[in-house]
Each structure stands twice: as C-alpha cells, then as structure tokens.
Amino acid sequence: MSAIDSLPPLREVIDTHQLLARKSLGQNFLLDLNLTAKIARQAGDLSGCDVLEIGPGPGGLTRGLLAEGARRVLAVEKDSRCMPALAEIAAAYPGRLELINGDALEIDPLQHLTPPVRVAANLPYNVGTELLVRWLTPKDWPPFWQSLTLMFQREVAERIVAQPGTKAYGRLALLAQWRADARIVLALPPEAFSPPPKVHSAVVHLTALAEPRFPADAATLSRVIAAGFNQRRKMLRASLKSVAPGIEDHLRAAGIAPTERAEQVSLEQFCALARSIKPLD
Ligand code: SAM
Fold it and tell me: How far apart are CA 27 and CA 79, in angstroms?
C-alpha cells in the first residue's frame, strides 16, 4: 500500500507490468507519490473539475490527481504497455478515470470532457511544447481549459515566463503571456525521475485569462512575433519588412523605434503593432 492510496508503490507497479522506460517515448517516470500529489495540488482545486492528463505512464501523477480529489480524470497514453497498470487505478477509483490509448497529438479528447477542465501533464518535452502552443492558439478564446499544469525542461519553463530584454524571451513567452498568467511553481532535479534525464525540470502553471491581455488580431500578432524572432539579432525594420508595407510607420505608431530588436519589445507593444497593421473591427 502506498502513502496516498491503497494501490501498490510505483516501483512494484513497474516491476509487475515490466514497464522498462523507453527513450523513444521520452519516458522518465516520477515514482514518489508524495511528489506527484504535490504537483497535482499545483493544478488548483480539482474537486469540481475534469482533468485531462496526457502521458500518464505507470500512473504516478494520475494517482496524485485522483487522491487530490479530481472529479474525473481523462488520461491519454500512447504506450499500450501502460494500459493494464492504469486499468488497476481505474478499478480503485470507480467511475473517475477514463483511459484512452492513443497519441495526444492526433486525437481530440474534447468530446470526453465536461467543463470546467484543467490539464495536467508530465510529457516528453517536444510533445509538451507542441501541445502548449496548440492549447494557447485555438480559434476561439476562452479555450476549453481553465488551467494547464505542465512539466517542462527548466530552459523551456524559463522561456514561457520570460520578460523582455532576456535571452529566454521570445515567441513562447509572448504566446503564453498574451492569453494566460504563467508562473513556475516547482523545480525538480533529475534525480526526481526514473531514469533521471540529463536536464533539470520545472512545473509551469498557466491560468487562462477571460480575454487576451491586450487586444490584437491573433493571426497578425502571431505573424509579427514569428518574423521578429526568426531573425532576433536584426533590427525590426529589417526583420518585419516582408510582414506589411510601410513597416517603419507601423512600428512608430506602436511606439517602437524601427532600429529596436524583437527581444526588447514588450507584449503590449507587439499587440499595438499588430493593431496598427490590422486594426480591429
Ligand atoms: N506521467 C508519468 C509520470 O509522471 O511518471 C509519465 C511521464 S513520461 C515523462 C511521459 C509519458 O508520456 C510516457 O508515459 C509516454 O509513453 C507518454 N507519451 C509520449 N508521447 C506521447 C504522446 N504523443 N501521446 C500520449 N502520450 C505520450
């Protein structure tokens, strides 16, 4: 019996189901259930929420989410070897854990979820970044989720919360901070995982804003940011030349010196630039 529920400790689960970690699936498991419960607590009050968990693996975070009172957890796992272990958790929490064996990048879990929804995941870092960008850039806002609690490589976490004038500042910071409050809530050393990865990790918590922080057309803002940071060493009048005719005038209208570089420009200024290029109705 474990510290947080009546199920066996995770090492035993991994031995029983022979879940040898696969590098190709980015498998670095969390085995300390006190730690997974702590991560689950960072996701906020789960009692009235459905939680979408991507990449449950042997179920450490899943058990944390359920023990912390999630109304329901929908867990999407690509590795079919994990399904029997996850089914045991579902049996211990009747009606509260639904499992999907599939690739989170290909399936649409929305039809299985009832709002309010929170998302929690410890994912391979490339998959996590791709999903984060998708979750931050839906056609309509507010999105299906109320909050995202996601484990990242420390450097990626720092890029999400970065401020202008720093090396980490770029597209990810602007995308995240335009429509969400983002903060790092937990730092984890490699030894917290089995096997330990080469890098440090951090949990980022993002809360969806009811409306974007500053008004702007999403597609124009996204184009301006992508072009600005694609050549981040160049002056904006050069890197944004192809985005719109008369870019120097638009830059001035947004209060940005045309000789400025993207990493010095605030989110508010990028939004003003997007509005100058494409005024809102
Ligand atoms: N959440 C577990 C934990 O904290 O111990 C496992 C974390 S491990 C870093 C990442 C998990 O994501 C693995 O179980 C892996 O099989 C799964 N995974 C990798 N790519 C995936 C994808 N595209 N869709 C769904 N699950 C994926």
Answer: 10
